[in-house]
Amino acid sequence: MNPADVSSVVRDYVRSVSLGESTGHDWWHVVRVTGLAATIREAEGGDPLRVELTALLHDVFDEKFYDGDAGTALSGLVDQLGIRAVFPDEVWDGIIFDILHLGFAGGFDQMPLSPEGQIVQDADRLDAIGAIGIARAFAYGGAKGRELYNPEEGIVPVATAAEYRTGSRHTVNHFYEKLLLLQDRMNTKTARRIAERRHRFMEEFLAEFFAEWEGA
Ligand code: ADP
Ligand code: NI
């Protein structure tokens, strides 16, 4: 299979399993992350096919909705799709390692990713901030039945990775435990530049949100 065929096989598969997903890992998230990753790669370098496949596959077996061993599942999927020959084994191992470790996890256990993995991590994080990030956070909170905000609870910092994973607070808290931290956690200069505007927009949103909350 040539690289263009590999990418369309993976694209079709991921689209078929993620269309209509409602926890923020839907197909359009994958499309946005794949596009952002390609933009970052053009400026920063890296293997284009590796970046694209990492982005397309990065949420297919996310722990939020897949209970089994995601590494085994990904390796099985590579065989099922008939695309193993496109990279040597150690590259596939690297791609799977990157996918398993590019999540935020409260920022507590950042793992050493390949340059391509770092680009996809940046793209995934860019899609969690700005206007889209705000929309995703409230969609996620809604899907979990959470309050928009609760002033009695206030803003509670999260101290450990375990606490981050089981987090169950109002959605505004998520801005302080994750979204507002991401700008400073970008791996690449290109992503940091894109993040600035998105970060500012979230700050403006929050200022307006709290002002309206107080009846402004
Ligand atoms: P990613 O695709 O970046 O790995 P996650 O799996 O952490 O993202 O979450 C998917 C989306 O849901 C992201 O936009 C994220 O910010 C949002 N999200 C995750 N946890 C929460 C939460 N506790 N409250 C609100 N939004 C959340
Ligand atoms: Ni993602």
Automatic annotation (TrEMBL):
High-level lineage: Archaea, Methanobacteriati, Methanobacteriota, Stenosarchaea group, Methanomicrobia
Residue span, HD/PDEase domain: 22-138
Name of this protein: HD domain-containing protein
Highest taxon in the source lineage: Archaea
Annotated organism of origin: Methanocorpusculum vombati
UniProt xrefs under Pfam families: HD
